[in-house]
Amino acid sequence: MTNPSPVHHDIVALETFFCPLPAKLDMPPGHTYTITQYDRTRVDQIAERIRDADIVIMTIINMSAEVLAVEASPRLKAIFDVASGTDSIDMAVCRARGIHVANMPHCNATTVAEHVIASYFAARRSITLSHSLIRRGEWPKRGTLLRTLDGPDGKLPRTAGNEIMGIIGWGAVGKKAASVAETLGMKVLVSGRKGAPASEGRTPFDTVIREATVIVLCLPRSPEVLNLVSTPEFEAMQSCCVLVNVSRGGIVDDDALVKALRERKIAGAASDVYLYEPAGPENSPLLAPDTQDLNLVTTPHVAWCSEDTIISYNNALKENISSWLNGTPVNTVI
Questions:
Q1: Where would a tag sit more exposed on the chain, N or C end, judged by fewer CB atoms within 10 A?
Q2: Is 71 within a domain?
């Protein structure tokens, strides 16, 4: 009996700059593949590069309805997102076409949680602001920079054992961050959904906003959570509060955040994410020149970066592809 011809898959990886691919994918018997890798891809290059692709591997690039239309990518059967968030993929088109979409949750949870804690300490102790001032020669001019650490209430920073961390977004990152925070002696409040009664084990959103001295945002972006934290929330926070955002740009109203910091409504903030990325002074109020004297820690969407994360992503990518081809897909979004 003649064995059936193998099923061949043309795979295109659009953004290996973020996460190099594993040396070899685990394909089930009867499946072969060729892979074309691009270090970076501009939006205007997507259509040409995926025209003949059966499988696309991407990270953050915008997979719009235009490039996902059957006329643009007629052979496309699956998209594997090397990330947790899938907000850059047009899900409606994928659903209509039957394109399988899978992500890679939990792979970066430990790394992002560690970044949360690092950002908290940096903001609580005004490390970035102190660094900037001392580099500008302000220490000898002023005689001391001790007061740089004061909160709006005029008090020096509190230690971790006296903090209440409010976590908005109870996924893998939130749970890891909570574990580390509790190890440091913090009390942890897990927020319920804004505008809804809190379920068992959760604290109402408004209560978290009022009572937490550290607020961590680590939830996926969706239309429902845009500007989740804006002027009313900053007005309700304690003046000693520090905000840490490792979720997605747009969940915090950045203009309102800058205003709250400038008016000393809160003690400090740290953000790894921006509404427009790559971010710069021209497209983000967090990076405008007039924010340099605020207690604001900014990092370029690198909370996920570590050697362990890359290894986890590679393992998850192999599992996602092989399980899908075997008919038992994991980490399915669509």
A1: N
A2: yes
Q: Which of 248, 262, 263, 319 is catalytic?
A: 248
Q: 292 and 144 share a domain?
A: yes
Q: Kindly report, residue by residue over 17-38, the tens digit of the pLDDT.
A: 999 999 999 999 999 999 999 9
Tell me how many degrees the CA angle 225-227-233 measures, rounded to the nearest 5.
Answer: 105
From CA 305, how far away is CA 313, in angstroms rounded?
Answer: 11
Q: Where are the alpha helices (DSSP H) in the chain?
A: 46-50, 65-68, 91-97, 109-124, 127-135, 138-142, 172-183, 205-211, 231-236, 254-262, 307-325
Looking at the structure, do residues 94 and 176 belong to the same domain, yes or no? no
Instruction: Report pTM.
Output: 0.92
Tell me, yes or no, whether 67 and 169 share the same domain. no
Cβ-based burial of 64 (10 A; exposed 0-12, middle 13-18, buried ≥19): middle
**Cα separation, 46 vs 283, whole angstroms:** 24
Section 280-291 average pLDDT: 98
Residue 43: CATH number of its domain: 3.40.50.720
Number of domains in the chain: 2
DSSP state of 73: -
The reply to whether 331 falls in a domain is no
pLDDT tens digits, 71-82: 999 999 999 999
* Catalytic residue chosen out of the listed positions 66, 114, 277, 319: 277
Same domain for 62 and 211, yes or no, is no
Per-residue pLDDT tens over the stretch 144-171: 999 999 999 999 999 999 999 999 999 9
Q: Which of 210, 301, 307, 319 is catalytic?
A: 301
- Same domain flag for 113 and 229: yes
User: How distant, in Å, are the alpha carbons of 196, 201, 266 from that of 258?
Assistant: 28, 32, 10
Dist. CA 230–CA 133, nearest whole Å: 29
Catalytic annotation on 277? yes
330 occurs within a structural domain: no
